[in-house]
Design brief:
Length: about 160
Amino acid sequence: MERKDQTITFLVNNKPDVLARIAGVFSARSFNIESISANITMNPEITKIIIVTRGDTATVTKIKNQTKKLVDILEVSHLKEKSSIQREMILIKVKLTNENRGKVMETIKDYNCRLITVEANHCVLEATGNKNEIKNILKRLERLGIEDLSRSGILAL
């Protein structure tokens, strides 16, 4: 079977150690967590955790079956890429020089990035997109001089 990114969402009681127990299931079965995001829902007593792992359908089934047994897990769902909306936000600090300034600004425009700050020798921009859009932005900006970055992890509905 084909190994690809699999997105799993968890609705859990907002209590200490729930995320650690979920991560333990991944670790015990040697499944890597590629992306993770967690935050409270409209009900502050419930947290939504979104984890992306690499594997096949059998991988997801194993994870779902094991995590459903954990205390404080309310719901576990496998989100299919075609029937869900998945986005990520990234903050990128890019070196600015006289030579690359025009290309950096062109990239910001081409990818609908948001310019957060501009200093004499660097700028910070914000980009939001699906996995491929973020990959393309990073590929283009790498050639121009990325100094640092921070990614949110996948958010999905």
